[in-house]
Design goal:
Rossmann fold; 36% helix; Ribosomal RNA large subunit methyltransferase J
Amino acid sequence: MLLNEKHPEDGRLLKENMKGDRRVAVHLGEGWHVPRALLPVAEKRAVMLIDPPFEQLDEMKRCTVALKETIGRMRQTVAAIWYPIKDPRLLRRFYQDLAESGAPKLLRVELFVHPLDTPASLNGSGLAIANPPWGLEEELRELMPYLAQKLGQTQGGWKMDWLIAE
């Protein structure tokens, strides 16, 4: 397993927690190079979680580029992108870029803790999952109502659909 962390202190903690496990390698620095540098892998399947800090304005675009590189280098990779839900206008372009990623299939699942029009707030978060494992959609359909109820602060909700269907 390869783990990559941008922030030095978090990376140090990650290395400390993973030391002694020879199956785990921890790299420090920007993770955008990972798909190009490490895919394809020898195994027939791979899972990649893209979880940027969203500190830069271009990170949604960089996520879609990373997804395209991942799918281009190893088409069957299960790739999940975590993203914040703040400004719906920014998300529209992100969704369009994801839909044009070339992934064989792409599931979108979102959890809302506030109404989407709440200004200057983290209103929820989402996952875009390329090549989701069999059964995940059904499991999420059972889980998401519970999470929305428990985590919703002013108005919880959820949504799930296919940005790219089979």
